[in-house]
Amino acid sequence: MTTKGPEATKTKRTSFPGSRNGLGSPRGSQGFKLVEFVAVLVIASTLGISAVSASYGSSGEPRQGQRANAQAALAEMAVLEEQYFLNNKRYTGHLGPKGLDVNSTMTAGERYALRVELPAQACPVGYCYILSAVPQGEQADDECGTLTLSSDGTKLPAGCW
């Protein structure tokens, strides 16, 4: 059966270029990507840790403040490792320009040395990492010692995070 008149020109097409969905957003917008979400999460946690470290630093607990700075540095390095993995399909064991491109291998105040390791015994090389912050100078007497953060999210020593 054929339709004549005004009904013949109607189309059943529901998606036109530039059309919008029911919420008023352009069709095809996907929201946040996982990397963007993780980056925002790390920035927010870094700001929170910095606020806590500032309060500890002023109340006579400089070691805890420096530890918080090291934790923030490890969290930032973890985001860089994940970005490197997305780009290269493996993690890197280098902090410099050919790897994570970290500006310094020391935290602010040079209280912790930052390191990255790709453990061969835990997984195939390049598919997991362990980030560590090794206390230096006055911080070496800190009760927590070396802080580590691994690709599976394990944070050690447990009571120091």
Q: Which class best fits the helix and strand makeup?
A: alpha+beta
Order of helices and strands: HHEEEE
Ranges where pLDDT stays below 50 over 5 or more residues in a row are 56-60
Oligomer: single chain
- The proportion of strand residues reads 5-15%
Mean of all residue-level pLDDT scores: 81
> Which value, in Å, is the CA radius of gyration?
25 Å
Taken from the alpha-carbon principal axes, the silhouette is globular
* Euclidean distance between termini CA atoms: 73 Å
Strand order of the largest sheet: 1-2-3-4
SS field, number of helical segments: 2
Q: How many strand segments?
A: 4
Helix content: 25-40%
Count of folded domains: 1
Question: Largest sheet, described in full?
Answer: 4 strands, antiparallel
Can you put this structure into words, describing what you see?
- With 161 residues, the protein is of the alpha+beta class.
- The protein has one domain.
- The chain has two helices and four strands.
- A four-stranded antiparallel β-sheet has the order 1-2-3-4, with helices on one face.
- Helix 1 runs antiparallel to helix 2 (62-88).
- The longest helix has 27 residues, at 62-88.
- It is globular.
- The N and C termini lie far apart (73 Å).
